[in-house]
Protein backbone atom coordinates (compact mmCIF):
# COMPACT_ATOMS: atom_id res chain seq x y z
CA UNK A 1 0.00 0.00 0.00
CA UNK A 2 1.31 3.43 -0.89
CA UNK A 3 -0.33 6.76 -0.32
CA UNK A 4 -0.89 8.81 -3.45
CA UNK A 5 -1.09 12.52 -2.65
CA UNK A 6 -3.07 13.54 -5.71
CA UNK A 7 -5.60 10.79 -5.29
CA UNK A 8 -6.03 11.77 -1.68
CA UNK A 9 -6.69 15.39 -2.53
CA UNK A 10 -9.10 14.41 -5.28
CA UNK A 11 -10.84 12.20 -2.87
CA UNK A 12 -11.30 15.01 -0.41
CA UNK A 13 -12.94 17.16 -3.07
CA UNK A 14 -14.99 14.38 -4.55
CA UNK A 15 -16.35 13.31 -1.19
CA UNK A 16 -20.02 12.54 -1.60
CA UNK A 17 -22.67 11.93 0.98
CA UNK A 18 -23.28 8.22 1.20
CA UNK A 19 -26.24 6.47 2.66
CA UNK A 20 -24.21 5.03 5.51
CA UNK A 21 -23.11 8.51 6.47
CA UNK A 22 -26.60 9.92 6.56
CA UNK A 23 -28.00 10.50 10.00
CA UNK A 24 -30.31 7.72 11.01
CA UNK A 25 -33.40 9.84 11.24
CA UNK A 26 -36.89 8.96 12.08
CA UNK A 27 -39.77 11.05 10.94
CA UNK A 28 -43.10 10.37 12.48
CA UNK A 29 -45.07 12.61 10.12
CA UNK A 30 -44.57 10.31 7.17
CA UNK A 31 -42.07 12.60 5.49
CA UNK A 32 -38.84 10.99 4.48
CA UNK A 33 -36.09 12.36 6.67
CA UNK A 34 -32.89 12.40 4.69
CA UNK A 35 -30.28 15.01 5.42
CA UNK A 36 -26.93 15.69 3.92
CA UNK A 37 -24.13 15.70 6.45
CA UNK A 38 -22.84 19.20 7.17
CA UNK A 39 -19.27 17.98 7.37
CA UNK A 40 -17.66 15.92 4.68
CA UNK A 41 -18.70 18.16 1.78
CA UNK A 42 -15.76 18.83 -0.51
CA UNK A 43 -13.84 21.93 0.48
CA UNK A 44 -10.35 23.08 -0.48
CA UNK A 45 -7.73 21.68 1.84
CA UNK A 46 -4.06 22.58 1.94
CA UNK A 47 -1.40 19.91 1.68
CA UNK A 48 -0.35 20.75 5.20
CA UNK A 49 -3.79 19.94 6.44
CA UNK A 50 -3.71 16.73 4.48
CA UNK A 51 -0.48 15.56 6.00
CA UNK A 52 -1.45 16.41 9.57
CA UNK A 53 -1.42 13.23 11.59
CA UNK A 54 -0.02 11.17 8.75
CA UNK A 55 3.36 10.26 7.34
CA UNK A 56 4.48 9.41 3.84
CA UNK A 57 4.09 5.70 4.46
CA UNK A 58 1.01 5.77 6.68
CA UNK A 59 -1.89 7.89 5.43
CA UNK A 60 -3.37 10.33 7.93
CA UNK A 61 -6.42 9.00 9.62
CA UNK A 62 -8.46 11.82 8.17
CA UNK A 63 -8.13 10.43 4.65
CA UNK A 64 -9.80 7.30 5.82
CA UNK A 65 -12.26 9.15 8.00
CA UNK A 66 -15.15 8.10 5.80
CA UNK A 67 -16.24 4.89 7.54
CA UNK A 68 -16.82 3.11 4.24
CA UNK A 69 -13.41 4.01 2.88
CA UNK A 70 -11.57 2.83 5.97
CA UNK A 71 -13.43 -0.46 5.75
CA UNK A 72 -12.82 -0.82 2.00
CA UNK A 73 -9.07 -0.29 2.37
CA UNK A 74 -8.99 -2.76 5.26
CA UNK A 75 -10.98 -5.34 3.32
CA UNK A 76 -8.73 -5.05 0.25
CA UNK A 77 -5.66 -5.45 2.46
CA UNK A 78 -6.57 -8.99 3.53
CA UNK A 79 -4.92 -12.08 2.05
CA UNK A 80 -8.33 -12.96 0.57
CA UNK A 81 -9.46 -9.57 -0.66
CA UNK A 82 -13.07 -8.71 0.02
CA UNK A 83 -15.48 -5.75 -0.11
CA UNK A 84 -18.45 -4.86 2.14
CA UNK A 85 -21.53 -6.60 0.75
CA UNK A 86 -23.87 -3.72 1.62
CA UNK A 87 -22.03 -1.52 -0.90
CA UNK A 88 -23.63 -3.57 -3.69
CA UNK A 89 -26.82 -1.60 -3.04
CA UNK A 90 -26.48 1.92 -4.38
CA UNK A 91 -29.19 3.28 -6.68
CA UNK A 92 -27.92 1.32 -9.70
CA UNK A 93 -27.21 -1.77 -7.59
CA UNK A 94 -30.71 -1.81 -6.08
CA UNK A 95 -32.17 -1.47 -9.56
CA UNK A 96 -30.04 -4.34 -10.87
CA UNK A 97 -31.05 -6.48 -7.91
CA UNK A 98 -34.71 -5.96 -8.78
CA UNK A 99 -33.91 -7.14 -12.30
CA UNK A 100 -32.13 -10.22 -10.91
CA UNK A 101 -35.38 -11.13 -9.17
CA UNK A 102 -37.09 -11.24 -12.55
CA UNK A 103 -34.55 -13.57 -14.18
CA UNK A 104 -35.48 -17.19 -14.82
CA UNK A 105 -32.46 -18.52 -12.95
CA UNK A 106 -32.91 -16.61 -9.69
CA UNK A 107 -35.67 -18.75 -8.14
CA UNK A 108 -35.45 -17.14 -4.67
CA UNK A 109 -37.91 -14.27 -5.10
CA UNK A 110 -40.43 -16.33 -7.05
CA UNK A 111 -40.42 -19.13 -4.49
CA UNK A 112 -40.94 -16.64 -1.68
CA UNK A 113 -43.77 -14.82 -3.47
CA UNK A 114 -45.41 -18.18 -4.09
CA UNK A 115 -45.45 -18.91 -0.35
CA UNK A 116 -46.60 -15.40 0.43
CA UNK A 117 -49.61 -15.63 -1.85
CA UNK A 118 -50.54 -19.24 -1.01
CA UNK A 119 -50.31 -18.88 2.76
CA UNK A 120 -51.11 -15.19 3.06
CA UNK A 121 -54.09 -15.60 5.39
CA UNK A 122 -52.23 -17.91 7.73
CA UNK A 123 -49.22 -15.57 7.74
CA UNK A 124 -51.41 -12.53 8.42
CA UNK A 125 -53.14 -14.47 11.20
CA UNK A 126 -49.80 -15.20 12.79
CA UNK A 127 -48.91 -11.50 12.69
CA UNK A 128 -52.12 -10.68 14.57
CA UNK A 129 -54.27 -7.57 14.67
CA UNK A 130 -52.96 -4.05 15.30
CA UNK A 131 -49.32 -4.71 14.41
CA UNK A 132 -46.70 -2.08 13.66
CA UNK A 133 -44.58 -3.48 10.85
CA UNK A 134 -40.82 -2.91 10.70
CA UNK A 135 -38.98 -4.03 7.58
CA UNK A 136 -35.17 -3.88 7.69
CA UNK A 137 -33.72 -3.50 4.18
CA UNK A 138 -37.16 -2.79 2.74
CA UNK A 139 -36.17 -2.22 -0.88
CA UNK A 140 -39.15 -1.38 -3.07
CA UNK A 141 -41.57 -2.91 -0.55
CA UNK A 142 -43.37 -5.06 -3.15
CA UNK A 143 -43.57 -8.17 -0.99
CA UNK A 144 -44.66 -6.11 1.97
CA UNK A 145 -47.52 -4.48 0.10
CA UNK A 146 -49.20 -7.89 -0.16
CA UNK A 147 -48.62 -8.66 3.48
CA UNK A 148 -49.78 -5.23 4.65
CA UNK A 149 -53.03 -5.44 2.72
CA UNK A 150 -53.76 -8.84 4.29
CA UNK A 151 -53.05 -7.75 7.87
CA UNK A 152 -55.88 -6.96 10.24
CA UNK A 153 -55.79 -3.29 11.25
CA UNK A 154 -52.04 -2.62 10.82
CA UNK A 155 -51.03 0.51 12.77
CA UNK A 156 -48.01 1.68 10.78
CA UNK A 157 -45.26 0.58 8.43
CA UNK A 158 -41.61 1.47 9.06
CA UNK A 159 -39.38 0.54 6.09
CA UNK A 160 -35.64 0.75 6.80
CA UNK A 161 -33.15 1.06 4.00
CA UNK A 162 -29.58 2.18 3.55
CA UNK A 163 -30.39 3.70 0.14
CA UNK A 164 -32.57 6.85 0.35
CA UNK A 165 -33.61 6.60 -3.31
CA UNK A 166 -35.10 3.19 -2.61
CA UNK A 167 -36.97 4.55 0.41
CA UNK A 168 -38.58 7.27 -1.72
CA UNK A 169 -39.84 4.72 -4.20
CA UNK A 170 -41.01 2.42 -1.43
CA UNK A 171 -42.97 5.24 0.13
CA UNK A 172 -44.69 6.11 -3.16
CA UNK A 173 -45.59 2.48 -3.86
CA UNK A 174 -47.07 1.89 -0.39
CA UNK A 175 -48.95 5.20 -0.46
CA UNK A 176 -50.61 4.25 -3.70
CA UNK A 177 -51.71 0.85 -2.45
CA UNK A 178 -52.54 1.76 1.17
CA UNK A 179 -53.20 5.52 1.34
CA UNK A 180 -54.34 5.43 4.98
CA UNK A 181 -51.49 3.47 6.47
CA UNK A 182 -49.09 5.74 8.43
CA UNK A 183 -45.57 5.49 7.03
CA UNK A 184 -42.39 5.90 9.04
CA UNK A 185 -39.45 5.53 6.64
CA UNK A 186 -36.05 5.19 8.31
CA UNK A 187 -32.80 5.74 6.42
CA UNK A 188 -30.42 3.47 8.28
CA UNK A 189 -27.99 0.60 7.99
CA UNK A 190 -29.92 -2.10 9.80
CA UNK A 191 -26.72 -3.88 10.83
CA UNK A 192 -25.98 -0.87 13.06
CA UNK A 193 -28.00 0.29 16.05
CA UNK A 194 -30.88 2.55 15.02
CA UNK A 195 -33.56 4.47 16.85
CA UNK A 196 -36.48 2.04 17.16
CA UNK A 197 -37.50 3.60 20.47
CA UNK A 198 -39.09 6.50 18.56
CA UNK A 199 -41.60 4.38 16.66
CA UNK A 200 -45.31 4.91 17.35
CA UNK A 201 -47.33 2.55 19.53
CA UNK A 202 -48.97 -0.65 18.29
CA UNK A 203 -50.52 -3.78 19.76
CA UNK A 204 -47.25 -5.48 18.96
CA UNK A 205 -44.34 -5.07 16.58
CA UNK A 206 -43.82 -7.34 13.61
CA UNK A 207 -40.35 -7.60 12.11
CA UNK A 208 -40.60 -8.60 8.47
CA UNK A 209 -37.27 -9.76 7.03
CA UNK A 210 -37.93 -11.59 3.76
CA UNK A 211 -35.62 -12.34 0.82
CA UNK A 212 -33.19 -14.51 2.81
CA UNK A 213 -31.03 -11.47 3.50
CA UNK A 214 -30.22 -13.16 6.82
CA UNK A 215 -28.19 -15.59 4.68
CA UNK A 216 -25.78 -12.83 3.73
CA UNK A 217 -24.35 -12.85 7.25
CA UNK A 218 -21.95 -15.32 8.81
CA UNK A 219 -23.99 -17.44 11.24
CA UNK A 220 -22.52 -15.64 14.27
CA UNK A 221 -23.39 -12.24 12.80
CA UNK A 222 -26.82 -13.51 11.76
CA UNK A 223 -27.48 -14.46 15.37
CA UNK A 224 -26.40 -11.02 16.56
CA UNK A 225 -28.63 -9.38 13.95
CA UNK A 226 -31.64 -11.47 14.99
CA UNK A 227 -30.85 -10.49 18.58
CA UNK A 228 -31.06 -6.81 17.54
CA UNK A 229 -34.37 -7.52 15.86
CA UNK A 230 -35.51 -9.15 19.09
CA UNK A 231 -34.71 -5.92 20.93
CA UNK A 232 -36.52 -3.82 18.32
CA UNK A 233 -39.56 -6.12 18.42
CA UNK A 234 -39.97 -5.84 22.20
CA UNK A 235 -42.16 -8.05 24.40
CA UNK A 236 -44.76 -10.05 22.47
CA UNK A 237 -43.02 -9.11 19.20
CA UNK A 238 -43.09 -11.38 16.16
CA UNK A 239 -40.68 -12.06 13.34
CA UNK A 240 -41.42 -13.35 9.85
CA UNK A 241 -38.12 -14.46 8.37
CA UNK A 242 -37.34 -15.52 4.78
CA UNK A 243 -34.79 -18.34 4.59
CA UNK A 244 -33.37 -19.87 1.44
CA UNK A 245 -32.99 -23.63 1.94
CA UNK A 246 -30.15 -25.99 1.05
CA UNK A 247 -30.31 -27.48 -2.41
CA UNK A 248 -28.03 -28.82 -5.13
CA UNK A 249 -24.98 -26.75 -6.04
CA UNK A 250 -25.82 -26.48 -9.76
CA UNK A 251 -29.16 -24.75 -9.08
CA UNK A 252 -27.44 -22.36 -6.70
CA UNK A 253 -24.61 -21.55 -9.09
CA UNK A 254 -27.10 -20.78 -11.84
CA UNK A 255 -29.16 -18.59 -9.53
CA UNK A 256 -26.09 -16.52 -8.67
CA UNK A 257 -24.68 -16.43 -12.21
CA UNK A 258 -27.81 -16.00 -14.32
CA UNK A 259 -27.84 -16.56 -18.07
CA UNK A 260 -28.80 -12.96 -18.77
CA UNK A 261 -25.69 -11.67 -17.00
CA UNK A 262 -27.63 -9.37 -14.66
CA UNK A 263 -25.96 -10.77 -11.54
CA UNK A 264 -22.59 -10.17 -13.19
CA UNK A 265 -23.48 -6.49 -13.79
CA UNK A 266 -24.78 -6.27 -10.22
CA UNK A 267 -21.48 -7.53 -8.84
CA UNK A 268 -19.30 -5.43 -11.17
CA UNK A 269 -21.29 -2.31 -10.29
CA UNK A 270 -19.56 -2.43 -6.91
CA UNK A 271 -16.25 -1.52 -8.59
CA UNK A 272 -17.93 1.19 -10.67
CA UNK A 273 -19.37 2.58 -7.45
CA UNK A 274 -15.93 2.72 -5.83
CA UNK A 275 -14.71 4.63 -8.89
CA UNK A 276 -17.64 7.07 -8.71
CA UNK A 277 -17.76 7.66 -4.99
CA UNK A 278 -14.23 7.09 -3.77
CA UNK A 279 -12.10 8.09 -6.75
CA UNK A 280 -10.84 4.54 -7.30
CA UNK A 281 -9.47 3.56 -10.72
CA UNK A 282 -10.80 0.03 -11.20
CA UNK A 283 -10.88 -1.05 -14.85
CA UNK A 284 -14.22 -2.90 -14.64
CA UNK A 285 -13.49 -4.70 -17.93
CA UNK A 286 -10.45 -6.28 -16.28
CA UNK A 287 -12.62 -8.13 -13.71
CA UNK A 288 -15.19 -10.88 -14.15
CA UNK A 289 -18.08 -12.15 -12.04
CA UNK A 290 -17.79 -15.55 -10.37
CA UNK A 291 -20.27 -17.65 -8.30
CA UNK A 292 -18.76 -20.46 -6.21
CA UNK A 293 -20.60 -22.88 -3.91
CA UNK A 294 -18.75 -23.79 -0.70
CA UNK A 295 -20.16 -27.19 0.27
CA UNK A 296 -18.60 -27.23 3.73
CA UNK A 297 -19.94 -23.82 4.72
CA UNK A 298 -23.23 -24.28 2.82
CA UNK A 299 -22.94 -20.96 1.09
CA UNK A 300 -22.77 -19.54 -2.39
CA UNK A 301 -20.11 -16.87 -2.77
CA UNK A 302 -19.85 -14.05 -5.29
CA UNK A 303 -16.36 -13.00 -6.31
CA UNK A 304 -14.81 -10.57 -8.77
CA UNK A 305 -11.84 -12.17 -10.50
CA UNK A 306 -8.96 -10.17 -11.92
CA UNK A 307 -8.47 -11.11 -15.58
CA UNK A 308 -4.84 -9.99 -15.50
CA UNK A 309 -1.99 -8.84 -13.30
CA UNK A 310 -2.81 -5.21 -12.34
CA UNK A 311 -2.66 -2.41 -9.77
CA UNK A 312 -5.64 -0.41 -8.52
CA UNK A 313 -5.66 2.85 -6.56
CA UNK A 314 -8.16 3.74 -3.87
CA UNK A 315 -8.10 5.80 -0.67
CA UNK A 316 -4.51 6.86 -1.19
CA UNK A 317 -3.40 3.22 -1.44
CA UNK A 318 -2.34 0.93 -4.27
CA UNK A 319 -3.46 -2.68 -4.39
CA UNK A 320 -1.88 -5.42 -6.46
CA UNK A 321 -4.00 -8.06 -8.19
CA UNK A 322 -2.40 -11.18 -9.60
CA UNK A 323 -4.11 -12.66 -12.67
CA UNK A 324 -6.95 -14.86 -11.36
CA UNK A 325 -6.96 -13.31 -7.87
CA UNK A 326 -10.45 -12.62 -6.54
CA UNK A 327 -12.34 -10.14 -4.36
CA UNK A 328 -15.03 -11.82 -2.26
CA UNK A 329 -18.11 -9.58 -2.38
CA UNK A 330 -21.00 -11.64 -0.96
CA UNK A 331 -21.87 -14.91 0.77
CA UNK A 332 -25.38 -16.32 0.75
CA UNK A 333 -25.74 -19.05 3.40
CA UNK A 334 -28.30 -21.78 2.81
CA UNK A 335 -30.01 -23.34 5.83
CA UNK A 336 -32.02 -26.36 6.88
CA UNK A 337 -35.19 -25.22 8.68
CA UNK A 338 -33.96 -26.79 11.94
CA UNK A 339 -30.66 -24.94 11.69
CA UNK A 340 -32.46 -21.61 11.53
CA UNK A 341 -34.76 -22.58 14.40
CA UNK A 342 -31.67 -23.15 16.57
CA UNK A 343 -29.91 -19.99 15.42
CA UNK A 344 -32.98 -17.84 16.10
CA UNK A 345 -33.54 -19.53 19.47
CA UNK A 346 -30.05 -18.46 20.51
CA UNK A 347 -31.10 -14.89 19.62
CA UNK A 348 -34.24 -15.01 21.78
CA UNK A 349 -36.85 -16.12 19.22
CA UNK A 350 -39.19 -19.07 19.62
CA UNK A 351 -40.08 -20.79 16.34
CA UNK A 352 -43.84 -21.02 15.80
CA UNK A 353 -44.54 -21.45 12.09
CA UNK A 354 -42.92 -22.86 8.98
CA UNK A 355 -44.25 -22.18 5.49
CA UNK A 356 -42.53 -23.60 2.40
CA UNK A 357 -43.09 -23.64 -1.35
CA UNK A 358 -44.14 -27.02 -2.79
CA UNK A 359 -40.60 -27.65 -4.06
CA UNK A 360 -39.15 -26.80 -0.65
CA UNK A 361 -36.67 -24.36 -2.07
CA UNK A 362 -37.52 -21.55 0.31
CA UNK A 363 -39.08 -21.08 3.76
CA UNK A 364 -40.89 -18.30 5.55
CA UNK A 365 -40.59 -18.86 9.29
CA UNK A 366 -42.68 -17.31 12.06
CA UNK A 367 -41.10 -16.56 15.44
CA UNK A 368 -42.30 -15.04 18.68
CA UNK A 369 -40.04 -13.09 21.04
CA UNK A 370 -39.09 -15.40 23.90
CA UNK A 371 -39.71 -13.97 27.37
CA UNK A 372 -36.58 -12.43 28.78
CA UNK A 373 -34.66 -14.49 31.27
CA UNK A 374 -32.61 -13.05 34.09
CA UNK A 375 -28.94 -13.40 33.26
CA UNK A 376 -27.21 -16.24 35.18
CA UNK A 377 -30.43 -18.03 36.01
CA UNK A 378 -30.65 -19.84 32.71
CA UNK A 379 -28.85 -22.99 33.78
CA UNK A 380 -30.88 -23.27 36.96
CA UNK A 381 -34.20 -22.73 35.23
CA UNK A 382 -33.35 -25.25 32.55
CA UNK A 383 -32.48 -27.82 35.15
CA UNK A 384 -35.63 -27.14 37.11
CA UNK A 385 -37.56 -27.72 33.92
CA UNK A 386 -35.66 -30.96 33.45
CA UNK A 387 -36.46 -31.99 37.00
CA UNK A 388 -40.14 -31.33 36.49
CA UNK A 389 -40.22 -33.11 33.15
CA UNK A 390 -38.53 -36.31 34.20
CA UNK A 391 -40.58 -36.44 37.38
CA UNK A 392 -43.82 -36.27 35.50
CA UNK A 393 -44.50 -32.65 36.40
CA UNK A 394 -44.19 -33.18 40.15
CA UNK A 395 -42.95 -30.16 42.09
CA UNK A 396 -40.06 -30.47 44.44
CA UNK A 397 -39.05 -28.07 47.13
CA UNK A 398 -36.52 -25.34 46.32
CA UNK A 399 -33.80 -27.26 48.14
CA UNK A 400 -34.23 -30.30 45.90
CA UNK A 401 -34.25 -28.20 42.72
CA UNK A 402 -30.97 -26.64 43.84
CA UNK A 403 -29.14 -29.91 44.47
CA UNK A 404 -30.44 -31.35 41.19
CA UNK A 405 -29.27 -28.23 39.33
CA UNK A 406 -25.88 -28.58 40.96
CA UNK A 407 -25.68 -32.27 39.98
CA UNK A 408 -26.59 -31.33 36.38
CA UNK A 409 -23.83 -28.75 36.28
CA UNK A 410 -21.31 -31.26 37.60
CA UNK A 411 -22.52 -33.76 34.97
CA UNK A 412 -21.86 -31.19 32.23
CA UNK A 413 -18.40 -30.47 33.62
CA UNK A 414 -17.74 -34.23 33.83
CA UNK A 415 -17.09 -34.09 37.59
CA UNK A 416 -20.23 -35.93 38.74
CA UNK A 417 -19.36 -39.42 40.03
CA UNK A 418 -21.77 -42.21 40.87
CA UNK A 419 -21.61 -44.80 43.64
CA UNK A 420 -21.11 -44.34 47.39
CA UNK A 421 -18.66 -41.52 48.11
CA UNK A 422 -18.34 -40.85 44.40
CA UNK A 423 -16.24 -43.98 43.84
CA UNK A 424 -18.21 -45.06 40.76
CA UNK A 425 -17.65 -43.88 37.20
CA UNK A 426 -18.35 -40.45 35.73
CA UNK A 427 -22.07 -39.87 35.30
CA UNK A 428 -23.19 -39.20 31.72
CA UNK A 429 -26.92 -39.76 31.85
CA UNK A 430 -29.36 -36.98 32.76
CA UNK A 431 -31.59 -39.37 34.60
CA UNK A 432 -28.81 -40.58 36.85
CA UNK A 433 -27.70 -36.99 37.55
CA UNK A 434 -31.22 -36.09 38.61
CA UNK A 435 -31.36 -39.17 40.85
CA UNK A 436 -28.08 -38.19 42.51
CA UNK A 437 -29.31 -34.62 43.00
CA UNK A 438 -32.49 -35.89 44.61
CA UNK A 439 -30.71 -38.26 46.95
CA UNK A 440 -28.39 -35.43 48.01
CA UNK A 441 -31.49 -33.35 48.73
CA UNK A 442 -33.00 -36.18 50.70
CA UNK A 443 -29.84 -36.44 52.81
CA UNK A 444 -30.07 -32.72 53.52
CA UNK A 445 -33.68 -33.15 54.58
CA UNK A 446 -35.30 -31.30 51.66
CA UNK A 447 -38.83 -32.08 50.54
CA UNK A 448 -38.57 -34.89 47.97
CA UNK A 449 -41.16 -37.48 47.04
CA UNK A 450 -40.25 -41.01 48.15
CA UNK A 451 -38.20 -43.27 45.90
CA UNK A 452 -40.20 -45.72 43.88
CA UNK A 453 -39.31 -49.36 43.96
CA UNK A 454 -36.56 -50.06 41.44
CA UNK A 455 -34.81 -46.75 42.13
CA UNK A 456 -34.39 -43.90 39.67
CA UNK A 457 -35.83 -40.45 40.08
CA UNK A 458 -39.39 -41.30 39.34
C1 LIG B 1 -31.43 -10.38 -1.40
C2 LIG B 1 -29.34 -10.37 -0.43
C3 LIG B 1 -30.68 -12.28 -0.22
O1 LIG B 1 -28.20 -13.33 -1.46
O2 LIG B 1 -29.80 -14.10 -2.67
C4 LIG B 1 -28.90 -11.98 -5.40
C5 LIG B 1 -28.70 -10.92 -3.06
N1 LIG B 1 -26.93 -11.62 -4.66
N2 LIG B 1 -28.03 -12.39 -6.33
C6 LIG B 1 -29.20 -13.17 -2.18
C7 LIG B 1 -28.19 -11.49 -4.35
C8 LIG B 1 -26.83 -12.16 -5.89
C9 LIG B 1 -29.73 -11.76 -2.40
N3 LIG B 1 -30.27 -11.20 -1.14
UniProtKB/TrEMBL annotation:
<dbReference type="Pfam" id="PF20106">
    <property type="entry name" value="DUF6496"/>
</dbReference>
<feature type="domain" description="Histidine-specific methyltransferase SAM-dependent">
    <location>
        <begin position="71"/>
        <end position="366"/>
    </location>
</feature>
<dbReference type="GO" id="GO:0032259">
    <property type="term" value="P:methylation"/>
</dbReference>
<keyword id="KW-0808">Transferase</keyword>
<dbReference type="Pfam" id="PF10017">
    <property type="entry name" value="Methyltransf_33"/>
</dbReference>
<dbReference type="InterPro" id="IPR051128">
    <property type="entry name" value="EgtD_Methyltrsf_superfamily"/>
</dbReference>
<dbReference type="InterPro" id="IPR029063">
    <property type="entry name" value="SAM-dependent_MTases_sf"/>
</dbReference>
<dbReference type="InterPro" id="IPR019257">
    <property type="entry name" value="MeTrfase_dom"/>
</dbReference>
<keyword id="KW-0489">Methyltransferase</keyword>
<dbReference type="InterPro" id="IPR035094">
    <property type="entry name" value="EgtD"/>
</dbReference>
<dbReference type="InterPro" id="IPR045468">
    <property type="entry name" value="DUF6496"/>
</dbReference>
<dbReference type="GO" id="GO:0008168">
    <property type="term" value="F:methyltransferase activity"/>
</dbReference>
<feature type="region of interest" description="Disordered">
    <location>
        <begin position="373"/>
        <end position="458"/>
    </location>
</feature>
<protein>
    <submittedName>
        <fullName>L-histidine N(Alpha)-methyltransferase</fullName>
    </submittedName>
</protein>
